[in-house]
Every structure is written in structure tokens, then in C-alpha cells.
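Researcher: Next sequence.
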Amino acid sequence: MTDDTPDLAALPRRRLIEQLVADGRLRDTDVRRAGGTVPREVFLGPAVYRASVPPGVTVWTPVRRDGTATEEWLRLAYEDTTWVTQLDGILAEHATGPVTGGTPTSSSTLPGLVLWMIEQAGVRRGHQVLIIGAGTGYSTACVCEIAGAANTTAIETDPNAAVRARRALAEAGHFPTLVTGDGLHGHAERAPYDVVVAFCSMRYVPYGLLRQVKPGGTLLVTLAGWGSGHGLTLLKVDASGGAEGRFLPGYTSFMTARPHDRPPHGPVELLPGEERPSRIDPSLLDDWTGRFVAQLAAPSAERLGLGDRQILLDVATGSQAWTRTDSSGAWTVVQRGPLRLWDAVEDAVDSWEEHGSPDLSAFQVSITPGAQRVRLGGPGGPGWDLPV
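Model: Next structure:
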């Protein structure tokens, strides 16, 4: 990059923030200022992966900063899109060529979402803030601009990504506390925090992490699971060590924190079992909220398949449930093993539909030292325990 890059970056950066404001996604002046100041082009690092357009197996092609015209690199940086920076632990700058398949393990989340989350979490000047999942360091830099670097702590689980983020933060003039470790444990040495923001998803909120938040403080985290359901949750911590919160509207997903990821397994063989008609349309699990409800009902099951062909697999018990459609369009479910996975899913989906099939913003979360529970509607509504 040339010395005139900051001047060239000013216009696309300003246009991005103006568009986010016009769309009603940003209102807080400090957050808008941070977005208009932090040079995202620095945090994309030496390279990113560009994904091929479906259909077929995704091919990830490295796009290198030193081989890309400045104007093009800035165009990439200020698109409101997510850029993958690491596949299966390999940073884009270390890739020797295009990669077929592969699983993203680190990325630069779209800036509109990063800034919106910081605003929703209520980050203010002087707050003690913990960022879980520093990634490229962009979100950490934005928080530094608002709360101050001395008040900002960030955790990154991947050592190589942490080195990359620390280098980018220094280039942008920010020197927060950045540690390499398991973000699920928080960072007790700098606690208590006014705000914790997680840029990864979790199956539940570790109680030790919750205890690092001040009473009255907030924790913003995406609750997710092995059923591919995601819901962004804003929690307020109380003086008793618990928390209450709600799901925010919209569609937000993040990579799962590595200790909470699904268990590995080999090829799946669908085995015969008990057959019966399904009470629900299997394709309801393709709906954003429908799959989250199904995940609440069968939290130990990995969801595979699509449409009429849904597959639920519980690795620990060997339980399976899978659906098919006959020539008349009727749905059949086959279940095998000690857990009747589809029975639980049907009951949960029935309850959701009886309440009008609302989106996730109608759900609440309650955390106590003994349990974590998601409920639909008021205190008397149906509820499900998270797999703590």
C-alpha cells in the first residue's frame, strides 16, 4: 500500500457509515465515529479468501493485499460483507493456492454487524469491555475508539490469528490487552466488566464467564448449537449472579467456540428403525426460528439434510431420526436409538406454532446458578433448558 492509502480510504469508509445510518442500523454517535475512523483495510491483513459462487463445492481463492491494486483492496474492505481469513487453521496469506472445500475458522465479520452489536451492547466511554473472539482485531479497534484501549480486553483462541490481530491493532495505533486463550473462560485478571461482547457462538453461557460481568452489566452473545440454529441474545446480569435477556431481531450467526463445537464423526449411515407419519413438515427446520426451536428440543443432535430430507444424529447414543417423502407427498419419519429425537422436535414445533410461529425476538433467556432456560412468551410460556 502507498502512503496515500488513508486519504483514499476516507471516502469509501464514510460512504459505508452513511449507508448504515441511512438504513437505521447505527444511531449512537460514538459508534458511528468509531466506524468512520478504524481502517478496516488494515485488519483484513495480508490476505483474505474469496469464495466461489455456488452451486457446487466452494473453492476459496486467496486474495493478497500486496498483489491487489489499492483501490480494489479498499473496495473489498468497505463492502459490508464478511471476509474469511482462515480455513481449517490456515491463514489466507499462508495458502499456496485455491482451496477446495474447507471450513472457515476465522474471519473479518461484516462491519455493519460488528458496529451494530457494539451499539446494542451499550459500549460507552470509560466502560471496561471484554471482547471474545478478537479475530482480525477490527471489533477490538472499534471498542478501543469508544471505551479507550486501556479499558479494552480481547481474547483470541487461535495463536496465529492473535499475532495477526495484535500486529494490525498496533498499525492502527491501538494497544489494548489482547490475550491468547479460551474465550469461554473470560479473563478474570481484568474483571469485572461492564460489557462483554462475543464474536463467536456458544451452546450456553459459561457461568464463570457470567460472574466476570458487573451487576447491571451486559453480555451480548449468539446462542447456537449442533442443529445449526443461531440467536443473538442480549443479557443483563443481576446481583444474584444470574441474568435475564432476550433475543434480538434479525439473523445473526457466528462460528462456534471451538470447545462447544459438534463432536467429530465419520460418514453417516442411516439405519432402519421405527417408522410413522411425521406430524410436522420437515422443511420447517429450514426456517431460521424453526431450526432453533428444533435445536432447543434436541440439543445433543447434529442436524444434517435439507427440506423434506432432514437427518438428526446423536453421536453419544447412536440415536437417529430421518425423514422422507413418498410419491403422494406424505412425510415419514424413521427413528432409532434410546432418544426419540423427532418426537421431541415435533412437540417443540407444535408449541411454537400454537403461539403463532413468532420469530426469535419473542423468546427470552433466563440464567441462574443452577440452570439456563429459553422460554417463549411470558413466564407461563413453554420453555427448554440449554445443554449446560
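Model: The radius of gyration is 22 Å. Residues 189 and 212 are 10 Å apart (CA to CA).
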